Amino acid sequence: MAEDAGSMQRLAAVGGVEITDIDLSQDLTPAVKRHILNLFAAHPILVFRNQNLNNEQQYHFTLNFGEIEDQHVGRHQDSIKYGAVHTVSNLDEDGNPSGALPERGNYFWHSDKSYHDIPSLLTMLYAVQLPPTGGPTQFANTERAYAALPETTKRRIDGLRAVHSWESSRTKSGSAPATEAQIRERPPVDHPVARVHPVRGTKALYMGNHASHIVGMKLEEGQALLAELEAHATSEPFVYAHKWTQGDLVLWDNRCLLHRALTNYDMDQHARVLHRTVVRGTVPA
After folding, report:
1. Which domains, from first to last, does the chain contain?
2. Which of 51, 243, 18 is closest to 130 using CA atoms?
3. Which end of the chain is more exposed for a tag (fewer CB within 10 A), N or C?
């Protein structure tokens, strides 16, 4: 392990690691940066405990992984200088906890920005304010799920492409309908149902709530296949539930993970606030 690179503990199911004793508010030494990037190349989720970050510090740590996305459809950005660091919460427009939010997509299995022609590489969440209990984030490893598929299913989905749509995703999640401007901003795109991880060369299922149907397949048949694959990928053997503690920073690989937040807490009484940054990826192959 690199000097001053902290200690690690492996996470079940998703193949991730928990890292302690690294202060992400400070500039990383070259050795520690290499160590973290190597960990991310080998593990789809990294958990850093006991952090104390402002927006600027989270922004600069995120830059170690690539270009930060600064356009988020329907998202609130918290500042001009570090607007790419934005808030994910259950707070209403008046800043009060609420269970009746117009944005519901976080509570359905998805891969961030899969409705983009160039989807996200990784997402990073930093815990700012948490409910006393509940409100975990679940992660499903679609790389391991693909590997566990029967060979007949692998052959069936080989070459298939699914349509991913911001408009459809909002309808499926019961969120506020997409506006005409949002639909123009993010028209539907299609991606491989099984995409190749550009680092490891392995395949992972690529679907979730943003995926609406399969190109060239009857609508109902394609929707049924996507639902079947999602049910398989999000079954217990492939899922890790992260129980947040104050100061956690979690980053994950959108190329081989689905995720969702759970609402198993009193949303109208307790705030759940996390700061989010997203790194631009590459066209899925």
Report:
1. 7-280 (3.60.130.10)
2. 243
3. C
